[in-house]
Amino acid sequence: MRMLLIHSDYLEYEVKDRALKNPEPISEEQKKGRLDEVLAVFISVEKVDETNPEEVVEKALTEIKDVAGQVKANRVFVYPFAHLSSELAKPDVALDVLRKLEERLRDEGFEVKRAPFGYYKAFKLSCKGHPLAELSRTIVPTGEVKAEEVPEALKKEEELVSYWYILTPEGELIDVDKFDFTGHENLRKFANYEISKSRIADREPPHVRIMLDHELVDYEPGSDPGNLRYYPKGRLIKGLLEQYVTEKVVEYGAMEVETPIMYDFEHPALEKYLNRFPARQYVVKSGDKKFFLRFAACFGQFLIKKDATISYRHLPLRMYELTRYSFRREKSGELSGLRRLRAFTMPDMHTVAKDLQQAMAEFKKQYKLSMEVLRGVGLTPEDYEVAIRFTKDFWEGNRDFVVELARIIGKPVLIEMWDQRFFYFILKFEFNFVDNLDKAAALSTVQIDVENAERFGITYYDEEGKERHPLILHCSPSGAIERVMYAILEKQAKLQAKGVKPMLPLWLSPIQVRVIPVSDEVLDYALYVAGKLEGAKIRVDVDDTGDRLNKKIRKAEKEWIPYVIVVGRNEKEQNTITVRRRSDGRQTEMQLEDLIREIRSQTEGFPYKPRPLPLLLSKRPKFRG
Q1: How wide is the angle at C-alpha 593 spanned by C-alphas 587 and 598, nearest 5°?
Q2: What confidence tier does 132 reach under pLDDT thresholds 50, 70, 90?
Q3: Where residue 196 falls among pLDDT bands split at 50, 70, 90?
Q4: Which of 138, 271, 141 is nearest to 199 (CA)?
Q5: First and final CA of the chain: distance in angstroms?
Q6: Binding-site positions
Q7: Which residue, among 520, 549, 437, has the nearest Cα to 486 in the 3D structure?
Q8: Which whole number is the average pLDDT over 58-69?
Q9: Where is the signal peptide, in residue numbers (predicted)?
Q10: Which structural domains are found in the chain, ordered by start?
């Protein structure tokens, strides 16, 4: 059983339609329901629960009572929620478990309501937002062992005791419970999310509807969940981002390599590293040997460095790979559009540094590089929050260095501190985007690794010719490419909610200019204009459909086209164009060469790819619906 527990001001639902052929019989009164000041418990009863339903009920009761006691709730709303698991129990077993749990909660003195089982329901919920307001629990019957092999680091991550603070650019370290978040609402949301450690997505984030409606990305029912399909426009955006980040990293000084996606479980160094990295693996068998799919580019790059002859003169030595794909077997309830996937594209740089002084200098440079990379995709420091994580010893020895990181970003940052180091790194930062559901997702990150050079046998020769183990920095200056797309779309959803027209950065827009002829008699001029733009490496198309002019313009608006050119007889005769700019709504009559200069001024320095779809709209297929 999987449970998502949310301490709420209220939860209300309304039945919309049947989800099962034979749902639970209900009365008219049961088609709607609400409870105020309630602990909402969203539940998926799983296949494994069929082995001992009674035990599962009692374990769930214990967990709910524990959480209810902590948040001081005496009302419980039991809500069937199949989306938390892909391994669901039979409907009759699931309904029986839910009914018994409802009964046992009443026996314990709770006021209980249960939403009907087997229906599509609309629901509204107001989460209280404190650190214990969102919690998740997994219940497994005794004797049942999950098939997946969970690394030791992932188990320890849940057991670690963390101390949470806010660090100001002035160097003041304030306990998170005592910090005044006035003016830092996004930071408050991020801190609550991190402390609660609830990663489950209980609602669809807005970027999902955008990626589907714009035919960018879609779910792939023929694959494992968390593996997506990309339509032409989505593939173009993803490809441009991949090219942009790679160019930035190579320009920074990294050497690009390529390594395998599959590794031997029994390789001694890899086997040890697996238990130090908090990620679930995909396991592949070949004959009697067991392999795992990489969850980062570490393994391949470490093995290259192990075999290389490295001098202190070569340091810092930077190596980079754009991994398409890396694989992590995330929990099904955590999968959410582009935010969290099981197969993702990770720009991954590893830097060999001779000592802590050189590593920290490189860390600061890569911190700034990450800010620059995100700024290029339209994300400024106002759009993300910073987390810096380290041990108490590191803080005491390097306080000024950490404060400088907060000063560079120019705002308070979240600090997670541990009494002792468990992970392979001594220092780590992340830039985290907080979305429209108040969920956070890490984008850029850098870590200083103090273990793996020795584990993998990586050495360099110092000034005296002696072999030494270096430190290694792990850096993704953008985070996963898919997650960058998620952040860009979620930011636009936020702006749209404020009444601002959403739009992609011009260099990322699949179609930068649409030419609309007012009639067929000027189609030749529309094609001439499009040809000139295409020759200037601007992505352009022509709406040659039989729709009315107003409908064509609305269609371009709906597709977020940055520039719309309307051409009629007057424009053709005078060899001009009439341009509508999405950014400010202005309409201008101008020369085509002036528009080309305007667009080039905004896209200079960014990569280019040609139009991903046919020139004429009449020649395009529809990929969805």
Answers
A1: 60
A2: confident
A3: confident
A4: 138
A5: 34
A6: 298, 350, 474
A7: 437
A8: 92
A9: none
A10: 2-138 (3.50.80.10), 157-488 (3.30.930.10), 506-619 (3.40.50.800)
